[in-house]
Amino acid sequence: MTDGSVSSTGVTVRPDEPAPTMQSRDPRTGRVLGTFADMDPAAVAARVDRARQVQPDWAARSPAERGRHLLRIRAALVDAGPDITRLAAEETGKQQATAYFELFAACAMLTWASRNVERALRPERRSSYPVASKRVWVDYAPFGVVGVIPPWNYPVGIPFQSLPYALGAGNTAVMKPSELATLTGQRLAEAVNAAGIELVQLVTGGAKAGDALVRAPVDMIAFTGSPATARHILRSAAESLTPVLLELGGKDPMVVAPDADPRRAARAATAAAFFNAGQTCMSTERAIVCDPLQDEFVRHAATIARSVRLGPGDDSQVGPLTRADQVPILESRIADAVAKGATLVAGGRTRTDLGRGGWLEPTVLDGVTPEMDIFHLESFGPILSVVRARDVEEAVRLANDSQMGLTSSVFTADRATGRAIAAQLEAGGVNINDVMLGAAMAAVPFGGNKDSGFGRLQGVEGFRAFSQSRAVTEDRLPGMSPMISMMFHGKRLPSPRTLQRALRAMFGRGR
Ligand code: ADP
Predict the structure, then answer these.
(1) pLDDT tier at 1 (50, 70, 90 boundaries)?
(2) How far does the centroid of ligand 1 lie from the alpha carbon of residue 185, in Å?
(3) Is residue 492 part of a domain?
(4) pLDDT category, 12, cuts 50, 70, 90?
(5) What is the mean pLDDT of residues 315-322?
(6) What percent of the chain lies above the pLDDT cut of 70?
């Protein structure tokens, strides 16, 4: 885009203009941490070109070799640990320990991917039914270049829900980190490439740069973010028919069965709701508590919420919202719930004495119902809504009364009850007597139903999501003529009567 023309994203680009820069800031202080280019479509295309140059050599290595390289990447991440986690803490306002938890998860993903890439992508024999004369297997080829667009809330962990599997499958990647966590993303890409192969190209910028990446000739997009942005991405990807994998957040329910320990459930629900200032796609947002446990659950949750240390330092438990512009949105959701009959039992105020940024107190709302906005809309802050249900049946109905379906949990003293409730929850994952485990286990698929997205990251499913399956057939015996050629061998086609008889003989049973 060097001729002053209008790009595919509608942005006019002039050749002599330096790339505009964007700033990364610490939300706790407003301090500028660094600047980065807001890349135009030409710069984005150059990164995609570079990724495409590197890809064939990488894909030509065996899965075992690629697996060994993933461990070199892991070592480079470990070496860069202090840097990566400090940047993530500064850019998002989270405690450095929280960023370290993400790094542990990233390293676990790389470890499992390294050990399992060969098995997950090994060609698989399949039945050749109904063509008896053939042998057939399925193998897995990389897409080529994968565009990875992660959000800001877990800038270290989330990219590694995609990268180990995408790279392991033989793709290279172009990553566009969130404009709120670009320095972290840049440091991650440097670490990956420091392992000796330039497997990840970095695109920097905001929504326009992200859109340019979707419209660039990438072979697939893996996006984690909001449903609203996902709709833009799908529209742009429609132009080029680029496949898209979407992980889009949740409104995760916890069903607390009548036989559960309400204190244990309240401990888990508050931890999941407040961790990372509640900015977690699989945080527990709705605790749906059955009779007669509600009062004890609420009492305990409120006590915990009031005891949480809110503040800027590494010794706090909850930091500021990364985006202060979320404060009025969350405040209005709390006000809407209270106006419609919910009780604010803890928190609910925004502290202005703790510095810049959005310091929403850990909040517990009791008596939340489907009439309230907060029942349905994902709320990226430390808020736990308690929903009262008569019994398990009503609790399951309320849990599933959501446009989203990422993960969910159930608390019960009985194994059979746990499994029975789990089987009814409409979500990509269910934790029985625990919360938020999905993204901690590298071998299991992660992703959601309904507006929480489609496709799965991690596990064998993750490797397959970043691969194109290919069916290869061959003759069982040499010298056989191709199947279809019987149509043109001068013989007459079988009569409809004969074919109907054959059809009945083969498939006529089963009434
Ligand atoms: P979040 O608010 O959780 O960060 P978003 O959906 O707003 O979620 O953003 C996630 C990522 O998507 C960020 O890297 C952002 O820059 C990028 N992005 C935003 N708009 C677009 C778009 N239209 N096309 C591609 N990427 C986009």
Answers:
(1) very low
(2) 14
(3) no
(4) very low
(5) 94
(6) 96
Mutate to test the pocket of ligand 1, among 178, 184, 323, 451 (most ligand atoms within 8 A of CB): 178
**If you measure from the C-alpha of residue 226 to the centroid of ligand 1, how many angstroms do you get, rounded to a whole number?**
7
Instruction: Provide the pLDDT for residue 213.
Output: 98
Task: Choose the catalytic residue: 179, 281, 285, 290.
Answer: 281
Side chain identity, residue 157: G
Please tell me the number of Cα atoms within 13 Å of 50 on its side-chain side. Answer: 16
Q: Do 154 and 136 touch, CB atoms closer than 8 A?
A: no
| pLDDT level of residue 240 (50, 70, 90 thresholds) | very high
Catalytic residue among 247, 285, 361, 426: 247
> With contact defined as beta carbons under 8 Å apart, do 114 and 67 qualify?
yes
Q: Which atom of ligand 1 is nearest to the CA of 152?
A: 4
Q: Are 229 and 327 contained in the same domain?
A: no
What distance in angstroms lies between residue 74's CA and the mean position of ligand 1's atoms? 27
Residue 389's CATH number? 3.40.309.10
Q: How many CA atoms lie within 13 A of 194 on its CB side?
A: 13
Task: Based on the fold, state whether residues 102 and 184 are members of the same structural domain.
Answer: yes
For position 501, what pLDDT does the model report? 97
Compute the distance between CA of residue 64 and CA of residue 114 in angstroms, rounded to an integer. Answer: 8
Q: Are residues 412 and 339 in the same domain?
A: yes
Does any domain span residue 506?
no
Is 290 noted as a catalytic residue in this protein?
A: no
Q: Where among 402, 423, 451 does a domain terminate?
A: 451
Mean pLDDT of the chain: 94
Q: Cα separation of 101 and 36, whole Å?
A: 26
For atom 13 of ligand 1, the residue with the nearest CA is 178
Range of the domain at 162: 5-248+461-468
166 is a domain residue: yes
Separation CA 377–CA 418 (nearest Å): 26
What pTM was estimated for this model as a whole?
0.94
Q: Which residue has the tokens 């150059």?
A: 46
281 catalytic per annotation? yes
Q: Which residues have any ligand 1 atom within 6 Å of their CB?
A: 149, 151-152, 176, 178-179, 206-207, 210-211, 214, 225-226, 229, 232-233
DSSP secondary-structure letter at 18?
P
Read off the pLDDT of residues 95-123 as tens digits, 9 standing for 90 and up. 999 999 999 999 999 999 999 999 999 99
Give the pLDDT of residue 438. 83
Ligand 1 atom 4, closest CA: 151
d(CA 506, ligand 1 centre) in Å? 53
How many folded domains does the chain comprise? 2
Smallest Cα–Cα separation from 257: which of 393, 438, 441?
393
CATH number at residue 56: 3.40.605.10
Taking alpha carbons only, the member of 293, 219, 226 closest to residue 254 is: 293
Minimum-distance ligand 1 atom for the alpha carbon of 153: 3
User: In whole angstroms, what is the distance from residue 488 CA to residue 413 CA?
Assistant: 68
